[in-house]
Design brief:
2 domains, about 375 residues, alpha/beta, Hypothetical Protein Yjia, Chain: A,domain 2
């Protein structure tokens, strides 16, 4: 048996998707001794409380409750410490992690893979990142949010759901009993526009066989990262290839060093082209030379989030030694703008690329 012999399965999915129900069903199967880490953002861990009511099965496993934070950020170090502590118990055959509904799976997986690579003699390895999808909610609130008078989902929420769908190697389509066969086909097709490669598994009430989650190929971070249409478009752009698929979904990357005018860009977002399914990338505004802005759009919902400073916005005393140590930073350095740039992936169906580009260039700040 290899040194890394203890699989870890991360269960993600937005609030109400059925993650806890899935875990309850896994515990009832009693096929293997598992440890369970439950992460909830509240000060009282509601999910762990529900799982405790499962009864005798829980007494046969090790349960760790992590609250008042998220394992993808504020609780990351504590999370990895608990993983390692659990791995010392040789009777445990697998560790399941129920992530908070607002966790970003790529951040959790990235921290885990980094831990694997930098920690000697660890027994643990990342087996799978599973995204539990509430197909009824996707159908009602995303695919069919057509009435502009209805206040459906907040843009940040939709983008988080998109991130959870994009970054996984198994999608569990839950609550399928709430949709007709045609409706489920429509949801499946919509999900495939976003995530082309991950295996899809349909179920009701979170009823999934434990062996399906454990007896499968091991997780590969780079491979899973490349699954999303956003990443595929970026890869094709780097290789100077067109990105078109058999379903008529096309995508392209918009790049421009000059900044956007904030007011004009916000106006574009308010009247966003309906034929664009998904947009994601980094932008900057002429009234803020310091911060990277993350722009995300899914359907009718869009958000702009202020992130860390551009490298070229660092104080000179901090910038100079970094450039000396990492000269590659200067490869795409602009004499006027430094590393500042707009790079956004646009994905849609039936749009004219030249028309989208025209709308974007109209938002670029004039000299």
């Amino acid at each position: 048996m290899s040194k890394k012999e203890l699989p870890v399965v991360i269960i993600t999915g937005y609030l109400g998707s059925g993650k806890t129900t899935l875990m309850q069903n896994i515990l009832k199967q009693e096929k293997r001794k598992i440890a369970l880490i439950v992460n909830d953002m509240g000060s009282i861990n509601i999910d762990a409380s529900i799982l405790n009511k499962t009864g005798n099965q829980v007494s046969q496993i090790e349960m760790v409750e992590m609250q008042n934070g998220c394992i993808c950020c504020t609780l990351r170090d504590e999370f990895m410490a608990e993983i390692e502590r659990l791995s010392a118990d040789r009777s445990i055959e697998a560790i399941f992690v129920e992530a908070s509904g607002i966790s970003e799976p790529s951040s959790i997986a990235g921290a885990f893979v980094n831990y694997e690579e930098t920690t000697e003699d660890t027994r643990v390895y990342l087996k799978s990142v599973v995204s539990v999808v509430d197909v009824d909610r996707i159908y009602r609130e995303f695919l069919h949010s057509l009435d502009p008078s209805e206040d459906t989902e907040d843009g940040d929420i939709i983008n988080l759901i998109m991130d959870q769908i994009e970054f996984c190697n198994l999608m569990i389509l839950n609550k399928t009993d709430l949709l007709s066969e045609d409706q489920l086909d429509e949801v499946t097709s919509g999900l495939r526009n976003i995530q082309r490669e991950a295996e899809m598994l349909t179920c009701t009430h979170g009823e999934v066989d434990l062996d399906i989650l454990l007896d499968r190929p091991d997780f590969d971070y780079d491979e899973v990262e490349s699954y999303s249409t956003v990443q595929k478009t970026l890869n094709a752009h780097d290789e100077d290839k067109a990105c078109v698929d058999e379903y008529g979904i096309t995508s392209f990357v918009f790049e421009e060093k000059r900044p956007f005018n904030r007011e004009k860009f916000n106006r574009l977002v308010e009247e966003y082209p309906e034929k664009l399914i998904r947009s994601k990338g980094y932008i900057w505004f002429s009234d803020d030379w310091e911060h990277v802005q993350l722009f995300e759009q899914a359907g009718r919902n869009a958000s702009i989030t202020e992130l860390t400073p551009w490298v070229s916005a660092w104080p000179e005393e901090e910038l100079a030694p970094v450039i000396e140590d990492f000269p590659d930073i200067k490869e795409d350095w602009d004499e006027t703008y430094g590393d500042r740039c707009n790079q956004v992936v646009f994905i849609g169906k039936g749009y004219e690329k030249c028309e989208i580009e025209r709308l974007l260039y109209e938002c670029i700040e004039s000299a």
